[in-house]
Every structure is written in structure tokens, then in C-alpha cells.
Amino acid sequence: MKALKERILKDGRSLPGGILKVDSFINHQMDPYLMRQVAVEFIRRFASCNITKIVTIEASGIAPAVMVGLLMDVPVVFAKKKKPSTMGNMLSTTVFSFTKQKSYNVVVSKEYLTADDRVIFIDDFLANGNAAKGIVDLCQQAGAKLEGMGFIIEKSFQHGRRVLEELGYRVESLAVVDSLDNCQIKLKQE
Ligand code: 5GP
């Protein structure tokens, strides 16, 4: 995805601790046109899977997930970080946050993730794969089939891809950051 890579190099910022800040087009202010291009590419890659649902985690996965759901014409479910008082039957798991360096619970209603679902998980970043592992757990609890995972940006100097592929999952990412050393963004050349 040339447009995404160019945008990361133009507007992304490398922060200490291996964090890439993309607040001006993904994580705070969002570029819907780029998001649509991202969704079109995910759909191309997952075209052969018969998907019934897109799953993500709030908050930053929601925008790309909704765009994919819109273009695929399937519902989008996001795992919630706070259990709503009105939610009855639910599935729950614990996720370790790389950016906040602490664990938190996420929940999904049993009504919206079931054994009838064939799912792709969409998120903004793949770092160590902890958010994805949480979704793996929720899908297993629900009996849903997790067909694959799509990330806008993967950081290859962390080990999420290896962890998820070893678990047997298909991982697709649209831009791969090989290094953020010395405040320089180095993207994988494909
Ligand atoms: P993982 O669970 O794979 O370790 O980390 C992925 C999650 O942490 C993503 O949902 C994303 O919100 C956040 N994250 C991880 N690395 C980065 C980063 O470099 N920049 C930003 N903005 N978020 C990140």
C-alpha cells in the first residue's frame, strides 16, 4: 500500500519505547479516504474467506473495522473495555496493553459473537500480538471461526506475527515498520 507507506513516512512520528505516533491520520484525527483505501486492500486480501463478521477492540480498531464492514456488508463488533451495566450474557478476556503497560479486561456480548460466525480481526497496530490473542480467546469461547487478522501497521521488531502464526493464524499487514531507532522510521521494502 504505497499511499499508506508514504503517509507514515510523511506524518508519522517515532516516539521513545518503540511507539509510532500516527495521530494525524489514524489514531486521533482520521483520514477517511486513506481508511477506505486500507479497507479495500484488506477486502482484496481476505476475498476468498466467507466472512460474516468483523471484530476489533475499542478504540483505535473501530474506524478501519467499520470501513471494512461497510464495504463487505457485514456487521462489526468491538470488544468493549468497560462492561456496560445493561450487558447480560458475555464473554470476557484479559489483554495486556503494550502502550499502557498494564492489563485490562474486554467483553463481548454472547449475542454478537457466536459459533455461526466466520471472523476477521482488524486493528490499527500489531506489536506483540496481545490484543489479537485476546480476540483469539473470545472467538474460541464463542466457537466462532477466526479466519485471519488484518493490521494497518505491523512493527516487525516486536514479535506479534511470530506468536500469531505459531498459533496457526493468518496475519496480513499493510505496512511493516522494521525499525524506529534514532527517531527514524524505517519501513520494510516490498
Ligand atoms: P499488541 O497487542 O500487538 O502488543 O499491540 C497492539 C495494540 O497496542 C494496538 O491495538 C494499538 O492500539 C497499540 N499499539 C501498539 N504499538 C503501537 C504503536 O507503536 N503506536 C500506536 N499508536 N499504538 C500502538
TrEMBL record:
Xref: Pfam families: Pribosyltran (PF00156)
EC class of the enzyme, as a word: transferase
Residues the record lists as binding xanthine: 20, 27, 155
Catalytic activity: XMP + diphosphate = xanthine + 5-phospho-alpha-D-ribose 1-diphosphate
Cellular component annotations (GO), alphabetically ordered: cytoplasm
Pathway per the UniProt entry: Purine metabolism; XMP biosynthesis via salvage pathway; XMP from xanthine: step 1/1
Keyword Cytoplasm: yes
Entry keyword annotation includes Cytoplasm: yes
Localization annotation: Cytoplasm
UniProt binding sites for 5-phospho-alpha-D-ribose 1-diphosphate: 127-131
SUPFAM superfamilies in alphabetical order: PRTase-like
Top-level taxon in the UniProt lineage: Bacteria
Segments forming domain Phosphoribosyltransferase: 45-145
Enzyme nomenclature, EC number: 2.4.2.22
GO molecular function annotations of the record: xanthine phosphoribosyltransferase activity
GO biological process, one term: xanthine metabolic process
Keyword entries, A-Z: Cytoplasm, Glycosyltransferase, Purine salvage, Transferase
Entries under NCBIfam families matching the protein: PRK09219.1 (NF006671), XPRTase (TIGR01744)
Annotated HAMAP family: XPRTase
Family: Belongs to the purine/pyrimidine phosphoribosyltransferase family. Xpt subfamily.
Oligomer and partners: Homodimer.
Function, as annotated: Converts the preformed base xanthine, a product of nucleic acid breakdown, to xanthosine 5'-monophosphate (XMP), so it can be reused for RNA or DNA synthesis.
Official protein name in the record: Xanthine phosphoribosyltransferase
